[in-house]
Amino acid sequence: MQISSRVYLIASGHLGCSFSHPNDCNVYAVRCGSGYFVVDTGVGVDADHILSELQRDKIEPARIEGILLTHGHLDHSGGACFLHEHLGAPVFASRLTADALERADEQAINLAAAKIAGIYGPDLRLSACPVERVLEDRGSFDVGDCRITPIHTPGHAHDMLSYMVDSPDGMLLFSGDAVFHGGKILLSATWDCDPQAYAESLRCLGNLKIDGLYPGHGLWSVAGGSRHIEQSLGFVRQLLLPPNLM
User: Fold this and answer.
1) Is the pTM of this model over 0.85?
2) Low-confidence stretches of the chain (pLDDT beneath 70)
3) Residue 182 lies in a domain
């Protein structure tokens, strides 16, 4: 489903549009000239849906140049192995996400705790997946006519990367679970969630001038994306944290 001149939504669960598996995050395909990249992969259940959406949007697998992961939580990385194998596309991630994914380390991504909390069923597993490229903070690279800059934005998770995409149609931010529409955030009672780091990450994102904001859950904005980050900073400036997404 095309949602802007460059961006397609190819999965979205119950915290979004509810047109794929309920546990899926927002999964995006982004056009960069003649090629594309995918941001996040969903939980990995019923992942054939993503292939069907790509086909519906006339995006050929051979034109997908990479799969970019924002962080390792299962709703964002669980489908990485499936998409890597079926699309033939390399996976890019932070060092911590890469380490967890290549070892299928479920403890590192808080999967056991999420099962106990009832977020995921007991049978869900993380499938090991090779990561071709480990991304560093501010280590920019090009895909087609876009320049992609990973930005380390810990808080919701210690391995979080947001992706700033400088495109001919404007500056786009794929924020994962760092910041959402309306300036909301997502604090969790997990070992890798750090409120102070979260506040610093929001300040970091506040220095960017972005047009489109495409978060890991919920609504997106095709223009005026910076206003959502500014809403979050209104709380941070008062030494508070913004409201939670849920």
Assistant:
1) yes
2) none
3) yes
